[in-house]
Prior knowledge:
- With about 450 residues, the protein is α+β, with helices and mostly antiparallel strands.
- Helices cover about 50% and strands about 20% of the residues.
- A hairpin with a 2-residue loop joins strand 5 and strand 6.
- Its EC number is 2.7.13.3.
Amino acid sequence: MRASAGLWSSFRTRLIIGAIIWITAGMAVSGVVLSELFRAHVTQQFDDELHGHAAELAALAGVRPDGAPEIHRRLSDPRFLPHRSGFYWQLSSADGQRLVSPSLEGAALVLGVPAPAPGHERHSFIQGPTGELRLVERIVTPPGAAAPLRIAIGSDERLLNEVLARFNRTLALSLSFIALGLIFAAGAQIWFGLRPLARVREALAAVRSGQAHSLPEDLPSEVRPLAADLNALLEANSEMLRRARTQAGNLGHALKTPLAILADEAERLNTAGQGEAAGVLQTQIERMRRQIDFQMARARAAASHGTPGIACEVGAVVTPVLSAMRRLHGPRGVSFEADIAETLQVAMDPLDLGEVIANLLDNAGKWATGQVKVTAVTARDGIKICIDDDGAGLPPEAWELVFDIGERLDEQAPGSGLGLAIVRDLVTLYGGRVWLEASQMSGLRACLLLPRA
């Protein structure tokens, strides 16, 4: 049922199947009609030919003095000569004497009774020496004859059937070639007619992959309104995304300003000797900052996720982040290397991917003793990015714990404990996955699996 529904869900398939059905039915009906018309024409032609032979035989027939029938000369058609060609004639007198054509080779035609009325022709079918015979009979009285003669002349029905069979074979072959040509022409017309829809589909794929920002306008008049509506929808979606990001940024700045004032007040309280109150205030301020940073990143990713055209090259995003990490951790002797193909693209906003990579590289740089390496490869389910360091690593039981918000396994290291939580939330919003495992460089490996653009 699903395969049948999928088959009929295509305009092209429906049109082609419809064209095949109508062309086949039309050719079949045309073949039957033409065959019947040709049968009627050939049958009439055979009958007319028999009438002509009967008239010729009547003109040549005569009676000998002993009453036996005779002909003054043979018929002009050579098919009445010997060898049973399928054309036969017979003259019969009233006393039973007969004269037959040489093609009968001594046999006789068994005629029906009674004989036809004088002046009338009778059409009938009898069994001849080589099969069913199409027969024409008439009664004539030759000049000087005392009694009439019964003229019978006929041809094998198989001769008519052979002509019809040859015509039907030729007709079927011709109509088959015509039908194939019409089906091919219909398929080409359907392909050409639906080509604008294929262009719209290709343009939508380009928009989704970030290669274009709108659909083309040079489309047929039937498709142009659809493209215009889709362009308006894309523009409205982009404008909504810009507004959402602007509002999130404004909200973050609006909240950070009061927090800075509260932090100054906490410092003033600490200077005034109220260290306990200042400590409580500073702890709550730090928690509020973490939540603001976390929710800001989450809101930005939620707004970007699923937006058509969201895509970025992994190498283009990683390169500037590596430069920043070298300046930050280089004085400690930590080197940063990358092995990334230039063509790898992920369906993720470059700002969000940059934040994810920056958090992971910064975390690796803090714990590395001398080297951090970034690799990116194409996997079956997307793009896999791995960040390895040669630090001390983490025990396996802590690999999931570090992704919790605010979780820090070493309070002496700088940071808020929010980086990996932001990483997991951002990656999850884009339909990806992040996990930790042991690195071949003796430290820790952070792995990302992101959807391919």
